[in-house]
């Protein structure tokens, strides 16, 4: 059974930083493209960043230069380092795994990020 478990969310002041982590299990991690999405109340889920099997990354324009996605294949983990956080970054952040061997899509439960004074 595939499981994605996020951690690292919390309350941070504007301008602050947070590091999100996602641990994957039940999947061949090296065959998986990983991504972070976010969903704020009343808004559609949006792509934040992706990292493919080879380590190539993409970012939403709204986070480029402030967020960094990375992965550790030895630990089956993906990270999202978030800096210069803004109130509009507040959302539930969800980890996504796209398993290339079966074209399957998996989601974590999400971790809440709140950006407020």
Keywords:
single chain; 117 residues; mainly beta; seven-stranded mixed beta sheet; four-stranded antiparallel beta sheet; 11 strands; globular
**What characterizes the major β-sheet?**
7 strands, mixed
Estimate what percentage of residues fall within beta strands: over 45%
What is the CA-atom radius of gyration, in angstroms? 13 Å
Q: State the order of secondary-structure elements, H for helix, E for strand.
A: EEEEEEEEEEE
What level of helicity do the residues show? under 10%
Which blocks of ≥5 consecutive residues have pLDDT under 50? none
Write down the overall mean pLDDT.
96
Shape: globular
Number of helices: 0
Helix/strand/pairing category: mainly beta
User: What is the number of beta strands?
Assistant: 11
Measure the end-to-end span: 40 Å
Question: How would you explain this protein's 3D organization?
Answer:
The strands form 2 sheets. Strands 2, 4, 5, 6, 9, 10 and 11 form a 7-stranded mixed beta sheet that branches. The N and C termini lie far apart (40 Å). A hairpin with a 4-residue loop joins strand 7 and strand 8. With 117 residues, this protein is an all-beta fold. Helix content is 0%, strand content 54%. It is globular, with a radius of gyration of 13 Å. The protein has no helices and 11 strands.
Give a topology summary.
Elements: E1 3-7, E2 10-12, E3 18-25, E4 32-39, E5 46-51, E6 57-59, E7 67-72, E8 77-82, E9 91-99, E10 104-107, E11 111-115
Parallel strand pairs: 2-11
Antiparallel strand pairs: 1-3, 3-8, 4-5, 4-9, 5-6, 7-8, 9-10, 9-11
């Amino acid at each position: 059974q595939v499981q994605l478990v996020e951690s690292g969310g919390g309350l941070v002041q504007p301008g602050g930083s947070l590091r999100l982590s996602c641990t994957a299990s039940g999947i061949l991690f090296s065959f998986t493209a990983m991504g972070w999405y976010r969903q704020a109340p009343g808004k559609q889920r949006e792509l934040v960043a992706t990292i493919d099997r080879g380590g190539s990354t993409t970012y939403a324009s709204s986070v480029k230069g402030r967020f960094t996605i990375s992965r550790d294949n030895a630990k089956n983990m993906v990270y999202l380092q978030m800096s210069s956080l803004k109130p509009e970054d507040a959302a539930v952040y969800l980890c996504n795994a796209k398993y290339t061997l079966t074209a399957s899509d998996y989601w974590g439960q999400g971790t809440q990020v709140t950006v407020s004074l």
